[in-house]
Amino acid sequence: MTAALLGGAPDPDALRELPDDLTGRIAFVAAASEEACQARQRLVALHGDAPVEEAAVVVALGGDGAMLETQHRFLGQNLPIYGMNRGSVGFLMNAYREDGLPDRLKSAQAASLQPLQMRTTDASGAVHEALAINEVSLLRETRQAAKIRIIVDGKERMAELVCDGILVATPAGSTAYNLSAHGPIIPLGTNLLAMTPISAFRPRRWRGALLPGTASVAFEILEAEKRPVAAVADYTEVRDVRRVEICEDHRVRLTMLFDPDHGLPERILAEQFTV
């Protein structure tokens, strides 16, 4: 039985068929918290713990940070990931229940996500690459504001943005740091990215832009010696960058599983009406 894809047409390369019998096919991972580790022990006692190479699905226990770490850990392995909340926020997680887990997994709906590729050049000329599932963010390193030139699809769109930073977020990441920086929430399947300034000083009224998912973004750091900037792809940080290039990485696709009554598209929609 294959979970139904939300937010776009089914992609056979992104979804893995779940067997009718999941006995010995579930791999459990947990955050470092005591609550998550104890939950993992109980679930392993009930269902066993499959080696990753034999697993059909991964169950992640913790909060949104644990889900993000699990996604990075299993990048490229084409394993759907089902999260259960044993953390604080749990926007990306399902409700924690120990009963009926195999049935929940087989009836789950899938959200297919495309990560961003960050390619940076630092002060020494070294090139660094990393993937981001939520966002790529640029942040000032000192008390002085950053000055950043914005280039989209090879064309200069803003000669100089004076700010604390700027980020590019995926739809899945649009409810995270992007939302805290007053960026837009993007429903899955819209093939859009959010570009959101962080505490923009000049131009003061610029609130960012929505970009097509096919866009190629480059940020060039101005007065970099005086105003150093760090670039962060989720939790991979590169300091003293001079140029940062961002685009969707079509070599990799991630699949997250959600209970049918509380899928990620519904959560993203509901978040827009939260006061």
From TrEMBL:
Which parts of the sequence bind NAD(+)?
Answer: 64-65, 134-135, 164, 172, 175-180
Single GO MF annotation: NAD+ kinase activity
Going by the record, the broad EC class of this enzyme is: transferase
Q: What is its EC number?
A: 2.7.1.23
Compartments, record wording = Cytoplasm
Q: Which residues form a coiled coil?
A: none
Q: Which residues form the active site?
A: 64
**Keywords attached to this entry:** ATP-binding, Cytoplasm, Kinase, NAD, NADP, Nucleotide-binding, Transferase
Major localization class: cytoplasm
Record Pfam families: NAD_kinase, NAD_kinase_C
Keyword check for Transferase? yes
Give the reactions, separated by semicolons, that this protein catalyses. NAD(+) + ATP = ADP + NADP(+) + H(+)
Q: Which cofactor does it need?
A: a divalent metal cation
Top-level taxon in the UniProt lineage: Bacteria
Described by its record, this protein's role is as follows: Involved in the regulation of the intracellular balance of NAD and NADP, and is a key enzyme in the biosynthesis of NADP. Catalyzes specifically the phosphorylation on 2'-hydroxyl of the adenosine moiety of NAD to yield NADP.
Protein family: Belongs to the NAD kinase family.
Task: List the PANTHER family hit by this protein, alphabetically.
Answer: NAD KINASE
Please name the NCBIfam families in this protein's record. PRK04761.1
The protein here is known as NAD kinase
Q: Which organism is it from?
A: Pararoseomonas baculiformis
Q: What is the lineage of its organism?
A: Bacteria, Pseudomonadati, Pseudomonadota, Alphaproteobacteria, Acetobacterales
